[in-house]
Amino acid sequence: MKLSVTQNKVEIVEKGIVNQGEYNVTECEFDFVGAYDGLVKKAIFTDKATGKAYEMPILDNACTIPAEILQNKGVCLIGVYAYETFADSDELALRYSPTPATVTIELGSYRADVENPSDISTSQAEQYESKINTKIAEVDAVIDDVKERLAKGEFKGEQGKEGKQGERGEDGKDGADGKSAFAIAVANGYSGSETEWLKDLQGADGKDGVNGADGKDGTDGKNGEDGFTPTVSLEQIDETTAKITITNKDGSSQVAQFGGLWEDAEEETF
């Protein structure tokens, strides 16, 4: 049987069949809200017909229904209370007492009328149960610490020796031959020839690119050397003969003589 427990109410979440005369077989599992963390918890089972109540310690959020409450067929109240005592005394620090849940005890075979015996005082039992709950919390903390350290790899030992290489497995079967790209195109609905398909793969010619911008003007060339006009001088030698001298830039000169008498014409120097 599963029950949920808040500060104000105990409710049955999952009900099992509870029979008269059972002994130490019917377990109650309690789901407590966070307010109960760290508290000593106890279950109270009350026989509505007789008004008798029986108490069971709740350890690890569970307890069994006492055999005394299962002696008679009828209605039973399942209540819970939880408390905390000050560390240096038995004085209560706080206590929760929510409304109990109701469960029906079905007719069973075994019957007995036995009062619930108690060999130890209530104060001794409460202190003992408080210590048990403390130890359970300590064990849970150790388990959580071990899990955390295990996750970090703190308990890893040295790496073991490498195992022997296993036998080589059998070669796998050859896969089916792949289809050509054209065959795949035909399978996907292409109806033209392979030549047309290859043409289709080639994209159309791209558009002519835009003319580039005009380049920058070149730098001006060096000025040429100044021109030179040769010096010409004419000298009259006699009435019929003259000499002309042309002087070049480099200082060289050319001399031509012309005129003279006709019979001496061939002796002219040019």
3D architecture notes:
There is one protein chain. The protein is an alpha+beta fold and 270 residues long. Helices cover 17% and strands 27% of the residues. It is built from 3 helices and 12 strands, in the order E-E-E-E-E-E-E-E-E-H-H-H-E-E-E. It has helices at 122-151, 181-187, 194-201; strands at 2-5, 10-14, 27-32, 40-47, 53-57, 62-64, 74-85, 92-96, 101-105, 231-236, 241-247, 253-259. Strands 4, 5, 7, 8 and 9 form a 5-stranded antiparallel beta sheet that branches. It is elongated and about 185 Å long. The model has no long low-confidence stretch (mean pLDDT 79).
Task: Sum up the structure in keywords.
5-stranded antiparallel β-sheet; single chain; 12 strands; 3 helices; 270 residues; 4-stranded mixed β-sheet; alpha+beta
What would a concise description of this structure say?
Helices cover 17% and strands 27% of the residues.
* Average of the residue pLDDT scores: 79
The number of distinct β-strands equals 12
How would you spell out the order of helices and strands? EEEEEEEEEHHHEEE
* Distance separating the two termini: 149 Å
Please mark out the parts with pLDDT under 50 across 5 or more consecutive residues, or reply none: none
Topology:
Elements: E1 2-5, E2 10-14, E3 27-32, E4 40-47, E5 53-57, E6 62-64, E7 74-85, E8 92-96, E9 101-105, H1 122-151, H2 181-187, H3 194-201, E10 231-236, E11 241-247, E12 253-259
Parallel strand pairs: 1-3
Antiparallel strand pairs: 1-2, 3-6, 4-5, 4-7, 7-8, 7-9, 10-11, 11-12
